[in-house]
Specification:
7 strands, 2 domains, about 20% strand, 7-stranded antiparallel sheet, Arc Repressor Mutant, subunit A, Beta-Lactamase, about 240 residues, alpha+beta
């Protein structure tokens, strides 16, 4: 029976994504998100990236194609150098790029084959915070990417982003205290010591103490390394 790819309702997406909460392992949950993404939409591959506003860093996490799981953790970029990624962050809406527009906006690092000439990018958001994106290069069939499909992709990204952000509560508790984690999350969003102190209602000295204890627990030298470590562990997104 032919499948109506372009008629994925928000209720169907909500039903499928809500089932992912039953997956306890963080890495398995990320893979399940990609599997669900490919099941719902007319795509043959999906690559998930995390994002940190510190240095505008996007970091590859995992990819899924029709034949294999792809680990892309060595793929790190300043998103400002890849307009396709940067546009997704600014707009927080799914977009499709094809033809000449795609070639102009992508870098050679992300064009894996001469057969690749288009991409669909869906943002992953936790509330107002942009935490990453899913990019796909291969489509199941030729179709018109209208606003309804793109809106469904954006909706999926909001649900999936929330799940990713909340999937490692137990690990968070083991590694950092609640206040330490709160400080590190603000740092990952690009907030200064003064801004964090104002938001949390504590002194700048206390913020610095939380940072110092967090660095020691994580075994890193500075804030940037701490955020990168927490992103890799899936503790913050």
């Amino acid at each position: 029976m032919e499948r109506s790819w372009y008629k994925v309702s928000h209720n169907k997406i909500l039903e499928q994504v809500s089932m992912l909460d039953n997956t306890s392992n963080h890495e398995e949950k990320l893979l399940k998100i990609l599997e669900t993404y490919l099941d719902l939409f007319p795509l043959r591959d999906a690559f998930l990236y995390r994002y940190s506003p510190i240095g505008y860093l996007c970091e590859g996490v995992i990819g899924l194609t029709s034949s294999e799981i792809v680990h892309i953790r060595e793929d790190r970029e300043d998103v400002r150098s890849v307009p396709v990624f940067f546009s997704t962050i600014k707009d927080k809406k799914a977009r499709v790029y094809t033809g000449i527009e795609f070639m102009k906006l992508m870098t050679s690092n992300h064009i894996f084959s001469s057969n690749i000439h288009s991409a669909v990018v869906a943002p992953l958001c936790n509330g107002p915070a942009f935490i990453g994106f899913i990019i796909s290069y291969t489509f199941v069939e030729e179709l018109t990417w209208d606003e309804d499909i793109l809106a469904s992709l954006t909706f999926f990204g909001k649900l999936a982003g929330n799940i990713i952000s909340n999937s490692t509560v137990n690990e968070k508790i083991r590694i950092l205290s609640k206040r330490e984690l709160e400080v590190m999350r603000y740092i990952s969003w690009g907030e200064s010591t003064k801004e964090i102190a104002n938001v949390m209602g504590i002194s700048e000295l206390t913020v610095k103490q939380y940072v110092k204890s967090s660095l020691k627990k994580l075994g890193v030298r500075n804030r940037t390394e701490a955020v990168a470590a927490l992103l890799r562990k899936g503790i913050i997104s």
